[in-house]
Amino acid sequence: MSEANSRPNRLIHEKSPYLLQHAYNPVDWYPWGDEAFEKSKAENKLVLLSIGYSTCHWCHVMEKESFMNPNIAELMNHNFVCIKLDREERPDLDKIYLTAVSALIGSAGWPLNVFLTPELKPFYGGTYFPPVAQSGMLSWTDLLKLISAAWNDPSKKKKLLSSGQELSRIITNHLSWSSSHGPIDTNLLDNALNNFSTRFDRKLGGFSPAPKFPSPSIQNFLYAYYFYAKNSVQKDESGDTALEMANVTLRAMATGGIYDQLGGGFHRYSTDAKWHVPHFEKMLYDNAQLLKNYLDAFLITRDTFFEKVVRETADYVLRDMTHPDGGFYSAEDADSIPPDSGENGGHKKKIEGAFYVWEQREIRAVLGPEPGEIFSYHYGVQPQGNVEYDPHGDFIGKNILFAAHSLDETADKFSRSKNDIAQMLKESKIKLLQARADRPRPHLDDKILTSWNGLMISALSRAYQVLEDERYLTAARNAAKFIQKNLYSSETKLLYRRWRKGERKIVGMASDYAFLIQGLIDLYEADFDPGWLEWALELMDEQIALFYDTKNGGFFMTRKGHDKKIDLRVKEDTDSVTPSAGSVAVLNALRLARFADSGKYSTVVEQTLESVLSRINSQPDSAPELLVALIISRLKPVEVVIDGDRNGEDTRSMLRTVNSFFIPGKAVILVDNTIRSRLARQLPFVSSVKRIDNKTTAYVCMGKSCKPPVTDPEKVKNLLN
């Protein structure tokens, strides 16, 4: 991050933005690899593995305080072989060592600092350590000395080795599990809903006290449960409960400071219970999943509030997170240099949120007195600043924008019409966004990850289906083409995980396959190019062959031999900030069964659902995305086949009707004469699909029965209702 040390270390040869941030540390960092492992064994030194990512605030803090300190660096270099790892490139290793530290101290996060034996067995670790002891926290320097002394004491060294062996055994049992197969608890979905209801903050939204995370998989489950309850035989109010929890949470987030009120897009999480004070980094995976949450909310409620959030978030991604050749970047940092840096003795130290916060005088200087006053009222701007929770003093006199008042309240306050206020706020936001663009920007992590790109391809494809903005389809299509060109080998059928500046690296993991397949299915249902469907089916077969646990069900994160130094193959049984690869793989298999041999994936679906859900039976809310798959597996599958010219207005009208419905797992197939024979290779029945009176014709099928074909979109609407 800093280049105070004139001579770079080995990390200068890496492409990872996170590793490059540490290339000028005086610490003799190694990347994960044989050179470091061989040195550790040859010199009988412990490995110090430090894991993080380029937009991690506390990673930056620890680097500045400790890794840039020459005395601390000398202590590290003398006693350890120091390895830096980008968790976003190697989530498999991150999962292993995060689990180890959690087992040792009860929790874990980033930066993740783990001490390993030369055989790479973890025996101690933690997250952030200060350079000097404070508030009961052991200092980084003291910890280094204690562990080094223990390693050099024969009796204590023996205990460290024994601890490493025992911890590795525990991790292996926990992460590479087997599970008995049995019938799925019929109350599992209701139990999960009750758990979420118990955790739900009825006043402020969300499912935890501070800090609050967006948790898009929870909203996915709640909306799917709402649909399931509404269409079940025994109707009750549980579906409405699910819908209310999701809608309240999404509305609270979008009106809060966690949402970028000027530029669109969501920050990582809220440090307070009100969704007001965020941790300001922006992650591609959050925005992709939340975009779909708000799209579902719009489909169910038809409330244009949710539509507006979808458009603003998608526009943010297209504007700030898109590579010129089509891929999507990974993240934007939380920290940046304040705009007044250098003025009146100002500093050039990066500060959390500096790019996004405002003093009231700045707003009035840009907007003028009256528009500035109206904007300040609507977005909660105060002369003294509006941040109540500021433990580090970063926001003194600053304002984090949030929708403090509604349009109606603002109109009443200033005796203006609602339309006048809306127009004035729109113009003010444009002016402030332009002014903000002149500030020093946060660091952009411009690596392109297949898995996260798959999530955004899915989100933008669905946004196009519902909102019909061609820019969203173009961006999704260009990203898929980028991955096909730069991260996939058609000869070897190898998918890769990461691309940056011309280099593709790391063979794809299960999440890369699963998330990309999901994106390709949604992209097919947006432009109906059968090439996307064919690629999705090919990748699905590869994912099953490479990652599926044929004995116990579920999916491993990595293929056999992914890392020759680590034998452990992790299986995820929970959905985290992104869903597990297994959860998405089951969802994909359920959908692809409509486009190919319907029985082809049944074993994979059944075994994965049974093995994972039996494991988490007491905590069903830990895998909400897999519960969505369970819901879809219990619903009658809905399939709509449309025979019409893809560019014809009557076909567009029919698709508009079909795409206006929220139906989890729905499949849409377009047959036109240019691709009929190609589609028939996977779907023989397509050959028998005919138009009525040469009009665009829709066939609506539910379960194993199809309704008579219709040519009127209103009749399709009635059938889907």
Can you give a write-up of this model?
This protein is an alpha+beta fold. It has 5 domains: 10-175, 3-Layer(aba) Sandwich (Glutaredoxin); 189-321, Glycosyltransferase, CATH 1.50.10; 335-439, no CATH class; 449-635, Glycosyltransferase, CATH 1.50.10; 636-721, Glutaredoxin, CATH 3.40.30.10. Helix 14 (369-378) packs across helix 16. It starts with 16 loop residues before the first helix and ends with a helix.
Task: Report a brief summary of the structure.
By secondary structure, the protein is of the alpha+beta class. It has 26 helices and 20 strands.
Distance between the termini: 56 Å
Which structural class is indicated by helix and strand composition?
alpha+beta
* Name of the level-1 CATH class of the largest domain: Mainly Alpha
Give the name of the CATH architecture of the largest domain: Alpha/alpha barrel
Average residue-wise pLDDT:
95
Share in β-strands: 5-15%
> Over the alpha carbons, how many angstroms does the gyration radius reach?
27 Å
Q: Are there runs of 5+ residues with pLDDT below 50, and where?
A: none
Considering DSSP H and I runs of 4 or more, what fraction of the residues is helical? 40-55%
Report on the biggest sheet. Answer: 5 strands, mixed
Number of domains: 5
List keywords for this structure.
single chain; about 725 residues; alpha+beta; Glutaredoxin; Glycosyltransferase; 5 domains; five-stranded mixed β-sheet; four-stranded antiparallel β-sheet
